[in-house]
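// run 5 | inverse folding | seed 20
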């Protein structure tokens, strides 16, 4: 067996890497980006998409899933990916979500709630639902499946989704995302004037957070 490896990008080489990874026997990708070299939740930086896995989907069950999307029982995905015996529903956010510790927990809870909604007796032949974390990786589009076919993706006309749209499908109770942090766009020169003590400590003296 060949030793697995990770492809780390320091600049945008996605198209080149994608073509190479599509040729591999088994290659996966998640919807997150990471700080550093490890793709762990502790290193997770931004969420670009939530990806849902539904196993054992026949033609009938796929039809039920699409019917549920059309009638707004389930949120409309950006892409539906055929991965062999199941599907992966990609919900790409209209803007990336910064993954602060509390945000990671809320997104995980959101994914669990929506997995419970979308994976049911109408959409899957598997009764045992799999509740996966937000950094779960899935087979790359164009790469081989377990059945020696290719992973195929179909783009939905609905496009990207907002966090509030996804949250509106939580049946138990909508999760409170009101306290999400936002990145600052303040120039460093302005921060120096408004927060001189911080500037001296962090920028000039290089002290840690």
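// decoded
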């Amino acid at each position: 067996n060949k030793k697995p490896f990770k492809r780390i990008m320091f600049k945008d080489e996605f198209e080149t890497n994608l073509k190479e990874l599509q040729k591999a026997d088994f290659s996966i990708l998640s919807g997150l980006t990471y700080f550093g070299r490890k793709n762990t939740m502790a290193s997770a930086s931004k969420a670009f998409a939530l990806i849902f896995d539904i196993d054992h989907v026949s033609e009938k069950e796929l039809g039920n899933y699409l019917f549920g999307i059309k009638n707004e029982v389930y949120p409309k995905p950006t892409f539906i990916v055929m991965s062999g015996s199941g599907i992966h529903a990609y919900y790409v956010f209209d803007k990336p979500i910064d993954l602060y510790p509390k945000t990671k927990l809320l997104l995980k809870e959101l994914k669990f709630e929506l997995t419970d909604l979308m994976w049911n007796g109408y959409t899957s032949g598997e009764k045992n639902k799999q509740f996966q974390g937000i950094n779960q990786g899935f087979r790359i589009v164009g790469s081989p499946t377990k059945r020696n076919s290719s992973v195929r993706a179909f783009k939905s006309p609905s496009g990207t989704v907002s966090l509030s749209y996804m949250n509106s499908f939580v049946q138990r109770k909508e999760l409170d995302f009101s306290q999400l942090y936002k990145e600052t766009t303040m120039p460093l020169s302005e921060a120096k004037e408004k927060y001189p003590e911080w500037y001296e400590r962090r920028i000039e003296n290089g002290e840690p957070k």
